Amino acid sequence: MTQYRHRLPTLTLATLMFAASTAIAAPPSPPLTSSAAEQTGVALTIYNAGLGLVKDRRELQLPRGRGELRFMDVASQIIPESVHITPLAGRDTLRVLEQNYEYDLLNPQKLMDKYVGKEVKLYEKNPYSEREETVTATLVANNGTPIYRIGSDITFNHPGRVTLPGVPDNLIPKPTLVWLLDNDREGSQAVEASYLTGGISWKADYVLTLDKKDERADLEGWVTIDNRSGAAYRDARLKLVAGDVNRVRDDLPHREKALRMAAVAAAPPFKEQGLFEYHLYTLDRPATVKENQTKQISLLSADSFPVKKELLLKGENFYYYNPQGDTEGKQKVSVYVEFRNGAPAGPGMPLPKGTVRVYKEDGDGSLQFIGEDSIDHTPKDEKVRIKLGEAFDVVGNRKQTDWKKVATDSYEAAFEITLRNHKSEDVTVRVIEPIPGDWKMLASSHDYTKGEAFAAEFLLPVKKDGETKLTYRVRMRY
How many domains does the chain have? Predict the structure, then answer.
């Protein structure tokens, strides 16, 4: 019994020492690397203001316990603070202990910087033997031009090539997310990494085609996606958010590039739905958005809906504050096209802000560009109003015929507006006079209404090759 009691502690101590030495000698497990090859799906939501939400699903082989995972093929303009990884089988099986975003990318300058103070090999071709000769050198510095020590000599501008023994671990070929994970489940595991990225945006463009009488039109809408985020999204479930999303600009110091490429793909329209105070447009098929690509996808189409053309002459507020004299002033008459965004009379789909380009057939049946205008986000059943330009054959003249002060805060002004129509058909011109203050019409040659901002509005018919003259006197108090 005495021998047994003395030998037990000895054996136990030896066992513990062996186990400890084995643990110390065992090399650490190398970090796992995941690339787009393990990707099982990607969802991409793009916002108007150069922001994208990426949801990247991958099937990973993770060992049980604690280990490092390098998650590659992410956007180079990723916002690291927004990254979130979720195990799809259960949140309790996988825990993130530490998260890093590595963007110290591999390039010749940084690679040489890592070898300052270390030995490298220099190769130079012998002009006599035409063979490469090798010499071992120490890289002393790499500030613009590499400086080497060969033996006791210092040299630079070496004409040969340099080789390095390997790539340091702290340099990576592409931006990478690095997680320290604690995993309770061994084997294959599906995870989803989501993050926000800059450098990707979308906008809407529209083509409106008028009929011969300017009474009906066809509309086509296109989505233009510009991807400069530093990653490609293959077969992505694509969604677009229209609306003004508030962002903290100081948290997004991401650069925008101006490179433009063209890639046009016809596709079914997007499906639209409300999202909070915005609108969400979902493409009903997967789409690939390549890196550094501008891509166009069909958004909507509407045929032969009613439109209204309007000729507008609008005055200026300053006409009413001072005498303008007897000089006549020629004024341009603007041309607008307006339609109601309501089904079945119009598109009937909330329209994201964008540019509307308007075309019309000429006498030969060829489409000609006649103007463009930008529109803001337009809900269903609201009016869309597009300015095309200025009328060529309809001109206006304005003359102030009287201006006087009648009391401390009251004034009178009289105007004469002449409209001439050189077209081959009759037209109607809408005249808007932005009269300031509290005003009363004393006399007018034509009927008027009080319109927006309490302006006086007149509808003046003008015969072809004819002339219409509007005169009015108004008293203002301001």
Answer: 2
The range of the structural domain enclosing residue 124 comes to: 108-163
Domain end (from 163, 178, 194): 163
- Whether 135 is covered by a domain: the verdict is yes
Give the DSSP letter of residue 92: G
Kindly tell me the burial class for residue 227, based on how many C-beta atoms sit within 10 Å of its own C-beta (0-12, 13-18, 19 or more). buried
Distance CA 302, CA 344 (A): 9
The answer to whether residue 422 sits within a structural domain is yes
Which tens digits make up the pLDDT trace of 357-412? 999 999 888 999 999 999 998 988 999 999 999 999 999 999 999 999 999 999 99
pLDDT in tens, 270-303: 665 555 556 888 888 999 999 999 999 999 899 9
As a dihedral over the C-alpha atoms of residue 404, residue 408, residue 410, residue 411, rounded to 10 degrees, the angle is 10
145 to 5, 113, 137: CA distances (angstroms): 72, 11, 15
Contact yes or no for 460/468 (Cβ under 8 A): yes
pTM of the model: 0.69
Domain annotation covers residue 250: no
Give the end of a domain, one of 118, 140, 163.
Answer: 163
Both tokens of residue 190? Answer: 């599906």
Task: Answer yes or no: is 367 within a domain.
Answer: no
Non-local (6+) Cβ contacts of 71 within 8 A are 34, 58, 85, 176, 177, 178, 179, 193
| Cα distance between residue 385 and residue 381, in whole Å | 13
Interatomic CA distance for residues 440 and 454, integer angstroms:
11
Stretches where the chain sits below pLDDT 50 are 1-28, 250-268
Query: Does residue 451 sit in helix, strand or coil?
Result: coil
